[in-house]
Amino acid sequence: MTKRDTSRRTSLIHGGTRRSQYGELSEAIFLTQGFVYDTAEQAEQRFIKAGEDEFIYARYGNPTLRMFEDRIAGYLGYEDAFACASGMAAVSGALMALTKAGDHVVASRALFGSCLYVLEDIMGRFGVEITLIDGTDNAAWEAAIRPDTRLVFLESISNPTLEVIDLAHVCRVAHAHGALVLVDDAMATPVFSWAKACGADLAIVSTTKHVDGQGRMLGGVICGARDLIRGPIETYIKHTGGAMNPFTAWTHLKALETMELRVRAQAQGALDLAQALADHPALSSVRYPTHAAHPQHALARKQADYGGTVLTIDVKGGQESCFRVLNALQLILISNNFADAKSIATHPATTTHQRLPQEQKDILGITPGLIRLSVGLEDPKDLLDDLVQALEQA
Ligand SMILES: *Cc1c(COP(=O)(O)O)cnc(C)c1O
After folding, report:
1. Ranges of CATH 3.40.640.10 domains, the chain
2. What integer is the mean pLDDT of 276-282?
């Protein structure tokens, strides 16, 4: 059976494997900075053009990283990938590699805080013009994208308010103007990513989230066509130092083997919790992208089977009541992470999004009662019991 014949799930186990002369079963970790050459001529040749299985320096590439890059790229349907030190190294690397002074960028305003900082503060400082829009409004993309728009950037599902973007529409409009589409796919998860199917040029994944899935490693990856990945993106990142560590790549390779099982179970758990809490009297809203109570559930369902592993609940009675609920949780942990095997509750208004001005919070729907719930791998019944007893304190 050729690699092409295998299903996506099988590709998570076998994709990208490179075996050394020892024929190891589990992927080898090449914890090395450099590589040696048989002759001076061979070194010279490799610096002219390194072949498929030839490496020079770990900041440029490494066999363990290459295995991880090939495995995740194949899984997401892209030709190639570049692995980075964190999700933000991937986001900032891709944005900086593809823009220059005078370029115009359109982005959805419901962005992760660090992405917003890179776009507005850093890229603005280098003369890139940014237009932020309501990404859920299809007409707003048409209105904002111009002939000089170099790229568009968006979160396929926004953090923390779980807005869903009509990616096929955005890709159509952007491509009509020759702009590239970069998708931050952290919340959608690699398992339910629809970036490639909709025509996104680059899918950027914070592998810190569902790829690791167990709260250990920071990582990120940029997936796309080979000419972009091995062209401007590799050139920028290898010289600026954002490459992933081989140990991280090795843990990610092992984590990919179980990713579908984990993420599908977590997504089903999130959907079940949304269903079970939908009519709870202490809540003013419950949101999960593919659940019927989400205003964009039809679009979310058209794009993917599940809307990630996170749901939001809005506790009536504002921050005070919301904090009583958070403090009454006995199993679910208070943290600002998501996608862990351990379930996590976050209060975005006072933590991850604390610094946003109130008017921005209002626009994005980050209310004082909003809790972001990342569903882990515990027994779903235990999670529901914990939430129901905590909500009695509201
Ligand atoms: C976590 C996250 C990032 C950043 O990833 P790190 O691995 O923490 O650098 C970027 N975008 C989104 C949407 C995220 O959730």
Report:
1. 3-255
2. 97
Return the residue whose CA atom lies nearest to atom 3 of ligand 1: 87
In angstroms, what CA-CA distances link 17 with 38, 272, 308? 25, 36, 27
Atom index in ligand 1 nearest the CA of residue 159 equals: 13
Element (H, E) at 371: strand 370-374
> Locate tokens 């919070």: which residue?
361
| pLDDT over 70 percentage in the chain | 99
212 CA distance to ligand 1 centroid (A)?
A: 13
- Evaluate: CB of 88 within 6 angstroms of ligand 1: yes
> Once rounded to an integer, what is the mean pLDDT over residues 307-324?
97
Domain 3-255 architecture: 3-Layer(aba) Sandwich (3.40)
- Predicted pLDDT at 356: 87
Task: Tell me what pLDDT residue 6 has.
Answer: 73
Mean of pLDDT values over 20-27: 96
What pLDDT does residue 1 have? 42
Question: CATH says 259-391 is which class?
Answer: alpha beta
Where do you find CATH 3.90.1150.10 in the chain?
Answer: 259-391
Count CA atoms within 13 Å of residue 39 on its CB side: 3
DSSP strand pairing (202-206 vs 220-224) = antiparallel
